[in-house]
Amino acid sequence: MDISAYKNNVLHSKLILPLEELANRLTAIKAELERAGDVENTKKCAELIDKARKETYVFACCGHFSAGKSSMINELIGEDILPSNPIPTSANVVKIRAGEPYVEVLMKDKGLVSLAYPYSKRELQSYCKDGDQVKLVEISHPTNQLPPGVMIYDTPGIDSTVEAHRVAAESSLHMADLVLYMMDYNHVESRINFTFTRMLNKRMKRVWLIINQVDKHRAEELPFDSYRGKIKCSFQEQGIEVDGMFFTSVMDHSHPHNDLSALKSRLSREIREKSHHISQSVKKETFTVIVDHIHWRDEWNRRIREQLQATLSSTGASDSKKLKARIGELRSELGALRADPQRFEREFEEKLDNLLRNANLMPYQTRELAREYLESLQIGFRVGRLFPGRRTREEAARRRERFVESVKANAVTYIDIHLKKMFLAHLDIFKIRDERLRQTIYHLSVAIDELFLKRLVNRGALISRGHGGATDKAASSSFHTARSS
Ligand SMILES: Nc1nc2c(ncn2[C@@H]2O[C@H](COP(=O)(O)OP(=O)(O)O)[C@@H](O)[C@H]2O)c(=O)[nH]1
Ligand SMILES: [Mg+2]
Questions:
Q1: How far is the CA of 129 from the centre of ligand 1 (A)?
Q2: Residue 246, SS3?
Q3: Measured by CB atoms within 10 angstroms of the end CB, which terminus of the chain is less buried, N or C?
Q4: How far apart are CA 97 and CA 141, in angstroms?
Q5: Ligand 1 atom at minimal distance to the Cα of residue 154
Q6: pLDDT tens digit string along 354-400?
Q7: How far is CA 310 from the centre of its chain?
Q8: How is residue 411 annotated by DSSP?
Q9: Which ligand is located closest to the Cα atom of residue 157?
């Protein structure tokens, strides 16, 4: 996306949208940002919607410590509301509007605190100076110097680039229609002034430069016009564009080069045309919000990509070419499996048949036990002369037990272990990685009990005493049919 082309379009477009229409469009944008989870830009959008609906015009005073920001605001509203201090102090953002008297203080730890009216100026000013504990002070003050729907922001002083970014972020500059960038007479050409105003240019903010404390000028050292020319040149050379430049003194109203009354009347005109300015700045800020959101999305995508790459490398498949090749292989395997869904079962049956056919369930010793067992099933089987019934039953039970135990032991050795191995290997061939299925296979066992053996006994194969040679064969063939029954 070519952002600069859009930016030019926004900057130079003559299209002025009614504020209500802008607010409606912003509402749709806000819903989109909210859906994406971009909290910061969603909040900005909500604030811009509120600004457009209430037609709130905002001008913010920014600049170096002790440039005279607070003194200038007091001058403009004609009352010493804000603290001004010769010693640079840490401060916070203070928002002032005309209206019913109230003060709300947003503390860093305690949240919102309201000051009951009538509050003392000293108490209010101590909150404004407490940059450590207080994040924001909002003052509504009964004054006829400020028309309704106008707000002034006083912002913390800056003297480093890091601070410049922090202050810009904390000062809700997106709400400002105009920035009065204030400098003290002696520090106009400090680097931070160029850095901050360049940043304002980049954000398409309208900026008026205020060179304050011109009462410090010594005409005998340099004519004022030369000084003024030099300052204008410096900003031009830095490629910084401003919408106004004023040389002021809050202390010496009668100073011959004081532009204070020109500044006041420009501000009055500005406020009279506030709808136009609000419409323009909300449009530009909407553009900035969208650009910031695009960067937010880039960052979000970058983080997701990193997470995915970490996951991939943990599986040993970090190389995307290899991964694609592997996906191709898996797809064709899947295709083959889909084409012949019975393959798994068919091949398993073949292997099982083979396994059972070769399982030596009836080694010599077991065959002997089988023979004895089969003998005990014969109708004429009898043991002992005295009480033959009980002894015969006992002997038959003993033979049956020994035979069952022997077959069970053989089943474990010759079937169980091999069957599990074969089953698991079969799953591997078909790439089935189902842990629950594997667990079921581990716990498989071939259940052999007397009933099972009896079912297997082929009565026709039973031998009578005296045909010893055929017994083994008959017994083993009786059981070799286990699989088919
Ligand atoms: N000589 C002179 N001093 C000023 C002027 N404006 C403000 N000051 C003084 O500069 C100091 C810092 O002013 P302040 O308003 O607190 O500056 P901020 O830190 O930018 O808000 C205070 O002692 C003011 O009295 C001015 O136009 N001329
Ligand atoms: Mg101040």
A1: 14
A2: strand
A3: N
A4: 6
A5: 21
A6: 988 888 878 889 889 988 888 888 888 888 777 678 888 889 899 98
A7: 16
A8: I
A9: 1
Cβ(115)–Cβ(124) under 8 Å?
Answer: yes
CA distances from 409 to 207, 303, 365, 471 (A): 94, 59, 12, 21
Q: How crowded is the C-beta side of 278, counted as CA atoms within 13 Å?
A: 26
Q: Is 446 in contact with 439 (CB distance < 8 Å)?
A: no
Residues with CB under 6 A from ligand 1: 65-71, 84-86, 157, 212-213, 215-216, 249-251
Which CATH homologous superfamily contains domain 55-272? P-loop containing nucleotide triphosphate hydrolases (3.40.50.300)
Tell me 62's DSSP state: E
From residue 101, alpha-carbon distances to 106, 183, 311, 420 in Å are 17, 31, 58, 84
Residues 6+ apart with CB under 8 A from 209: 181, 183, 197, 235, 242, 244, 245, 246
Q: Where in the chain is the domain with CATH 3.40.50.300?
A: 55-272
Closest residue by Cα to atom 28, ligand 1, is 213
With b meaning 16 or more CB within 10 Å and e meaning fewer, what string describes 10-25? beeeeeebebeebbeb
Contact partners, residue 380, CB within 8 Å, separation at least 6: none
Question: Strands, E, within 169-261: which ranges?
Answer: 178-184, 207-212, 244-247
Atom 13 in ligand 1: which residue has the minimum CA distance?
68
Considering every ligand atom, which ligand is closest to the CA of 85? 1
> CB 383: neighbour CB atoms within 10 A?
15
CA 155 – ligand 1 centroid, Å? 14
Q: Give the residue whose CA is nearest to atom 8 of ligand 1.
A: 68
What are 480's two structure tokens? Answer: 């070799």
Q: pTM here?
A: 0.67
Using most ligand atoms within 8 A of CB, pick from 72, 74, 84, 188 the residue to mutate for ligand 1.
84
Q: Where are the alpha helices (DSSP H) in 130-223?
A: 161-170, 191-202
Distance CA 154, CA 67 (A): 12
Strand-pair category, 244-247 with 57-63: unpaired
User: What are 336-356's pLDDT values in tens digits?
Assistant: 888 888 888 899 999 999 988
Give bridge partners of residue 183 from the DSSP assignment: 211
258 pLDDT band, cuts 50/70/90, is very high
Beta bridge partners, 139, equal 96, 103
Three-state SS at 104? strand
